[in-house]
Amino acid sequence: MPRAPKQHSPAKVSAKRHGLRSDRQRQLDRGMRTNSRRWRKIRAAFLREHPLCQECEKSGLVTPAKVVDHVDGNSHNNSPDNFAALCASCHSRKTARQDGGFGNAKA
Fold first, then answer.
1. Phi, then psi, of 5 in degrees rounded to 5
2. Percent of the chain with pLDDT over 70
3. Is 11 left (phi over 0), alpha (psi -120 to 50) or beta?
C-alpha cells in the first residue's frame, strides 16, 4: 500500500538566532507571569474594588475596566498604589503613548 507524501515544514528559526527574546523570557524579565495564579488573584481583587475605567471616568464615561495597569510601568511593583483599572482601549492608548507605538515618540 502506498504511503502519503511527506509534509513540508518550513525550517524553524530560533528567536535567539535573530536576537529576539522568547515569550517565556519576556515574562520572566517582567517579574510575575501575567497568567500566574497569584497575579490573577491580585488582578481580580483590584477589579472588584475598581470596576470602572479610571480614564473614562475622567471624561464622564462609564466603561467597565478589564485591565489592571502598572502606573509606573514597573511590573515588579505590585502595590495597589501602583495599579490603575482601565478598559482595553484606554490601556492600548496609554501603552502606545509610552512605548512609542502608532507614530508616537517614546516617552
1. -65, 155
2. 67
3. beta
Contact 98, 86 (CB under 8 A): no
- Does the pTM of the predicted model rise above 0.85? no
Q: For 60-78, write each residue's pLDDT tens digit.
A: 999 999 999 988 877 778 8
25 or 16, higher pLDDT: 25
What is the C-alpha separation between 73 and 92, in angstroms, rounded?
13
Buried/exposed 30-46: b ≥16 CB within 10 Å, e otherwise: eeeeeeeeebeebbeeb
Q: Quick one: which of 93, 82, 101, 96 has its CA closest to 55?
A: 93
Type of residue numbered 21: R
C-alpha 83/C-alpha 78 separation (Å) is 8
Q: Name the grid cell of 25.
A: 523570557
